[in-house]
Amino acid sequence: xxxxxxxxxxxxxxxxxxxxxxxxxxxxxxxxxxxxxxxxxxxxxxxxxxxxxxxxxxxxxxxxxxxxxxxxxxxxxxxxxxxxxxxxxxxxxxxxxxxxxxxxxxxxxxxxxxxxxxxxxxxxxxxxxxxxxxxxxxxxxxxxxxxxxxxxxxxxxxxxxxxxxxxxxxxxxxxxxxxxxxxxxxxxxxxxxxxxxxxxxxxxxxxxxxxxxxxxxxxxxxxxxxxxxxxxxxxxxxxxxxxxxxxxxxxxxxxxxxxxxxxxxxxxxxxxxxxxxxxxxxxxxxxxxxxxxxxxxxxxxxxxxxxxxxxxxxxxxxxxxxxxxxxxxxxxxxxxxxxxxxxxxxxxxxxxxxxxxxxxxxxxxxxxxxxxxxxxxxxxxxxxxxxxxxxxxxxxxxxxxxxxxxxxxxxxxxxxxxxxxxxxxxxxxxxxxxxxxxxxxxxxxxxxxxxxxxxxxxxxxxxxxxxxxxxxxxxxxxxxxxxxxxxxxxxxxxxxxxxxxxxxxxxxxxxxxxxxxxxxxxxxxxxxxxxxxxxxxxxxxxxxxxxxxxxxxxxxxxxxxxxxxxxxxxxxxxxxxxxxxxxxxxxxxxxxxxxxxxxxxxxxxxxxxxxxxxxxxxxxxxxxxxxxxxxxxxxxxxxxxxxxxxxxxxxxxxxxxxxxxxxxxxxxxxxxxxxxxxxxxxxxxxxxxxxxxxxxxxxxxxxxxxxxxxxxxxxxxxxxxxxxxxxxxxxxxxxxxxxxxxxxxxxxxxxxxxxxxxxxxxxxxxxxxxxxxxxxxxxxxxxxxxxxxxxxxxxxxxxxxxxxxxxxxxxxxxxxxxxxxxxxxxxxxxxxxxxxxxxxxxxxxxxxxxxxxxxxxxxxxxxxxxxxxxxxxxxxxxxxxxxxxxxxxxxxxxxxxxxxxxxxxxxxxxxxxxxxxxxxxxxxxxxxxxxxxxxxxxxxxxxxxxxxxxxxxxxxxxxxxxxxxxxxxxxxxxxxxxxxxxxxxxxxxxxxxxxxxxxxxxxxxxxxxxxxxxxxxxxxxxxxxxxxxxxxxxxxxxxxxxxxxxxxxxxxxxxxxxxxxxxxxxxxxxxxxxxxxxxxxxxxxxxxxxxxxxxxxxxxxxxxxxxxxxxxxxxxxxxxxxxxxxxxxxxxx
Length: 1133
Prior knowledge:
- The chain is α/β, with parallel strands linked by helices.
- It folds into six domains: 24-156, Malonyl-Coenzyme A Acyl Carrier Protein, domain 2 (3-Layer(aba) Sandwich); 204-261 and 313-484, Rossmann fold (3-Layer(aba) Sandwich), CATH 3.40.50.150; 500-718, Rossmann fold (3-Layer(aba) Sandwich), CATH 3.40.50.11460; 734-958, Rossmann fold, CATH 3.40.50.720; 984-1085, ACP-like (Non-ribosomal Peptide Synthetase Peptidyl Carrier Protein, Chain A, Orthogonal Bundle), CATH 1.10.1200; 1091-1132.
- The protein is globular, with a radius of gyration of 35 Å.
């Protein structure tokens, strides 16, 4: 009965179960009776430790030596099977290919669901319904495509091969080889030379390969076609390749540098401008490129340090020895790679660096295209070339996915025709352009890879040692996510209101139903105007003003104390007692009474927090504790608190914390949530009317701002940040870190010292603990003078004292890092006003005091350590989100008035930071990964070289995070994060989506199932590896044709995307064949149309008279047909 109950529960949830016929209840207490006798037998066996790593299903981790004991196997009988934990352990160890060895694939589907159904490669060794050789060869082929080194000699064995002449029946014509990409026979130099003639000196028609973390709509690598807003973004992406490539290069030690394929000298000139100590040389085989490069060099007066020659790097000796030799996308065009690497090896100094970014063949064979001078060699040949020339790999990074994203162009053929026609390009140049698209296709098929490689010249190491080292490096590449900082960067962007046809309908109260509105009114007139509008609509309006006591002032007007929660509770009870109307909404306008930023003092700033955050804290708590049945929508209104338009000097920083608090209310109490609205700093006559329209409208926007008659909405977007002006550390300035003894403060201190900072002031309310003191001592031993200032940053007298101490004993202040803060995980209902103020004080008051006391000093940077909690909210951290939102606003305000400032919304840091281990584990479960300290510091260094006032730095699994963030409702704030497809598969499916749905919509009703059935035959055939000429039968069972649990999951994903309908895997399990599936899907897709026709049939049957007059019947039928035609037209519209 217990099992029957479990089966019933699972069935109700749509989970299919199968009753197993087994002799014993293994892995359960039912095995207890036989354990003693089993142990006796187990102890008679001789055990040996495994020779290859094994994951234990008892622990879910790598097997310990105990696996070779009788005790382990006795324990194994009774313990549960931790299969999911075992799969996840393999995932954390970066295993991406899973092969099930057994007669049929049972575990593959289970395994894939443990880590995400679309991840990794899952292969079967045998299947019942497929021949052994057929399945083995299929899986072997997939392994080969993934770059697995196959023992082909062992595979061939003693088998004899014979040539088989295949029939060439005209109706079965089929090729059995891999098609090569057809291009004509010009040489690459002709392409580059002609292209040079069309390019301006500082403008290009195409952009070289650039890594993009995701596919970007509206972009083409043909600059002439690409939307102009993407131009800068792509150049930044190219800079990212250089940053990754040069990561381990100390340019201070590079006196002589060579580019062995310099084109028209762009990289050489860039290095020369940034490093005055360098002498640079370049080779190119194009005379036109040399001429253009010389013009640039002469114009910039760099001819004394930069030389470019019209020479071939694989044949012509380099003129000198160099500290660094590099080439970007050059080696792939050099046929004589042995000559090239010999030249490099002979002219690279000991400990000098070779830097390459290039395409390589992913298989074990070379890929040659003489037509475009492309010669891609596999890893094995790279291994020999590097090792034989004493070049030891330092870093090896595979960014193939990101380069493919940059080359993606769904309209390539049309775009190419347009560009070639506009510039009158020859066929040679056209073929050159096509090579980009060919490379994109090969990247997607896994035939080639794009890698960034750096190697060091090591003459003192034996070649075999270098060979072994390089082999390990090549077999374990890093990936873009391991090295890129750009993928961590996001920002809040204010965009024009989306078109009304894209609004999502909000729950609304019928217009005929009267209700009550509470207006927590300002004194400037917005509340009074709203009251007039509300009462004219027939609703009741209660006005509440801030004051010192709780008292009724007149008809529907109250005064209460923002700091007294009892006032809010009494008010709500009184309003409910005097009128039983439902509460439609609450509009909070008190923040509009805060002081302008130019007049702000610490006292007025504290008052603003009580008016804004304090009052909303009390009001929300009263509603959720005592009035759960009311659930009015809360609208929080500010004026000019958001940086909608950059460099806005009117930014009202005192109001910004309310937005942080509001974002958490929306997460913890979605049933109460209306939204956040920021009014235009410039008051307009009709702003109350506009405000009312947005509050009572049908859109689902939760973050809205008005500026100059326009409506803006907030969106989180990816940020690719251009460098503005790198901060220089000359050792003659002092750097202040608040929260300097905390984990992040000490990390920042160590980074500053690594940048040659010699004077630090670490401010903290307490004394250093043992770990902090050890870190400080280490920094002092490196020659850094450090003052530990025991002070509270939120107390002006403390901060003034520290400033005076610095002035007397240190050089001038040159930089501030504000990392002080208090964090507390606390449900909203449990927060007291004093808790709120304690969390706000160090960041809000402390941040403002730092601004006031440093605004007259010439500092290089002012960095606020903020949090992602301020960006999208964080459950149980409303006060912390509010505090950090102020820092973001302060940073925007400082930049607007001409002062340096960066606010960094950090995600959690591993090994320290503001989040404890329990919080880090919870964040990880919802998709927010911890930042490695070295990556956080690298991001800090990168951001200080930008002019961006606010940047989110976080490592997020968006697919997972959105499941939790949007569990209650759709949140448009993250809409732009999803708008970019991360893989070609999604793009490919979206293209298919419109195509198959278009066909179904255009087809006659009685033909739709036939159209869909054919589509399903093709797609299921692809999943099963059928050739194009062989389609699965319509009435053959899905499992009989070779489908299994894993391929059903893949089919489900495909249908969900291509047909834009939700279908569960459990449903697919219960459907017999393609014919039944197509019937089910047609009914699901066109259910509304069928319902309309069924209603018409019902009306016809009910009203058609039962008479024998044939002429009358025909007349009625004609009228019915005419009405049916009208209905069908309406349906189509």
